[in-house]
């Protein structure tokens, strides 16, 4: 689709002031607003065009750039098809991307490239949050991606069925033109046809001439067991459809693992803090702890267990990605000091204190011995 001059779109003179632009924009926007023209794709395309023109001209910096370079200052795929980014800085970098081509990598896909305007589809990012249990077991996830696919009405050409695009006269169908910019002579995408080499005079109504329509696709993605937080899964060619026969982009699945209320994960190991009473710690005992596989396991605590003591449960951690190995689970006990004592409990503890000796408290005995050494010994 040929890019019409922004001033022409708004029907204003080139020296119109801000107020004149606004009045013209309002009038046209009212007329072509999608709410007023339900189902009318031509009006919708027109509405987008009006918006794009106004967004550019109302900004003095962009207007100056447009007056100087025309549409080339904001090169991108085509009007109507995509939202107008309107970012001048990124538009300039687009021009450089065009020069360096694929070298830049990570192409956003809404930019025309050489070769008759074939354009690679945009890469898509899909964020997914899974639980630790799901990361443990792995899962098959259903991913619903709204994506642009080739329009079936026009087979992706953008031209109304039965009509044919015309060869662009600005670039004679090459899609590229040479222009001097400062010291450089730069070959860049043809501003008239947006690099397609042809102009669609009769756009397809279904896709407004872009050749693509948005559709939700459902993909089955298998998430392997042991996946870590922040893992990125690349699904080759599952991104947006390319333009005019260009290759499809990729779909990137960004996985995050939800924090767990009981378990902390470090690599393949699982850590779990378990509070135990002073009596269990002193007398020894046993208790059940849940494991990440959904089961539970019994932990035996010997008498005289100190707070912070760790118990290792071999192979009760997370699976190691793409291997048969398993991490371990570590139980860290925290000895809990009793509170809200009854009179009877208090009596018992006081009595206990009276019959206690240094050897009942090995840690503090050692600590006070070190203090004595520090002050010169006794
Ligand atoms: Zn179409
Ligand atoms: Zn052209």
Descriptive terms for the model:
25% strand; HSP40/DNAj peptide-binding domain; 26% helix; binds zinc ion; 9 helices; 378 residues; 3-stranded mixed β-sheet; Chaperone, DNAj Protein, Chain A; 15 strands; 4 domains; alpha+beta; Helix Hairpins; elongated; 4-stranded mixed β-sheet
Number of domains: 4
Q: What portion of residues belong to β-strands?
A: 15-25%
Query: What's the assembly state of these chains?
Result: single chain
Low-confidence stretches: 76-115
Overall number of strands = 15
By CATH reckoning, the class of the largest domain would read Mainly Beta
Distance between the termini: 96 Å
CATH architecture annotation name of the largest domain:
Sandwich
Question: What topology does this entry show?
Answer:
Layout: H1 6-10, H2 18-32, H3 41-57, H4 60-69, H5 88-100, E1 124-130, H6 132-137, E2 139-150, E3 166-167, E4 176-181, E5 184-189, E6 198-199, E7 212-223, E8 232-235, E9 251-257, E10 264-266, E11 269-277, H7 278-283, E12 285-290, E13 296-301, E14 310-313, E15 329-336, H8 343-354, H9 362-374
Parallel strand pairs: 1-9, 11-15
Antiparallel strand pairs: 2-7, 3-6, 4-5, 8-9, 10-11, 12-13, 14-15
Helix pairs in contact: 2-3
The structure holds zinc ion (2 copies).
How would you briefly describe this protein structure?
The protein has 378 residues and is an alpha+beta fold. It has nine helices and 15 strands.
């Amino acid at each position: 689709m040929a890019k019409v001059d922004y001033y022409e779109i708004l029907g204003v003179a080139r020296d119109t002031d801000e107020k004149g632009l606004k009045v013209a924009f309002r009038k046209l926007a009212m007329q072509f607003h999608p709410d007023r023209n339900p189902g009318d794709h031509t009006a919708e395309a027109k509405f987008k065009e009006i918006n794009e023109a106004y967004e550019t001209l109302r900004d003095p910096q962009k207007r100056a750039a447009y007056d100087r370079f025309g549409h080339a200052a904001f090169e991108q795929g085509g009007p109507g098809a995509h939202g107008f980014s309107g970012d001048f800085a990124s538009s300039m970098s687009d021009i450089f991307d065009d020069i360096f081509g694929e070298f830049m990598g990570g192409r956003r896909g809404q930019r025309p490239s050489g070769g008759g305007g074939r354009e690679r589809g945009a890469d898509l990012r899909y964020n997914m949050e899974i639980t630790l249990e799901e990361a443990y077991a792995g899962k098959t996830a259903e991913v619903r991606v709204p994506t642009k696919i080739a329009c079936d009405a026009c087979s992706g050409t953008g031209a109304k069925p039965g009509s044919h695009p015309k060869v662009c006269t600005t670039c004679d169908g090459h899609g590229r033109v040479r222009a001097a910019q400062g010291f450089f002579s730069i070959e860049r995408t043809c501003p008239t046809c947006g690099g397609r080499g042809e102009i669609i005079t009769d756009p397809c109504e279904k896709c407004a001439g872009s050749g693509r329509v948005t559709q939700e696709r459902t993909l089955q993605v298998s998430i392997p067991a042991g996946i870590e937080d922040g893992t990125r899964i690349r699904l080759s060619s599952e991104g947006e459809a390319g333009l005019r026969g260009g290759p499809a982009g990729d779909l990137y699945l960004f996985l995050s693992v939800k924090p767990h209320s009981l378990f902390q994960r470090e690599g393949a190991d699982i850590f779990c803090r378990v509070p135990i009473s002073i009596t269990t710690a002193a007398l020894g005992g046993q208790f059940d702890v849940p494991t990440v596989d959904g089961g539970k396991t019994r932990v035996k605590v010997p008498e005289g267990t100190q707070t912070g003591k760790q118990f290792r449960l071999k192979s009760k951690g997370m699976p190691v990605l793409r291997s048969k190995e398993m991490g371990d689970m570590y139980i860290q006990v925290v000895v809990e000091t009793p509170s809200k004592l009854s009179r009877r409990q208090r009596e018992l503890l006081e009595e206990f204190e009276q019959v206690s000796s240094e050897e009942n408290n090995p840690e503090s005995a050692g600590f006070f011995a070190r203090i004595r050494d520090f002050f010169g010994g006794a």
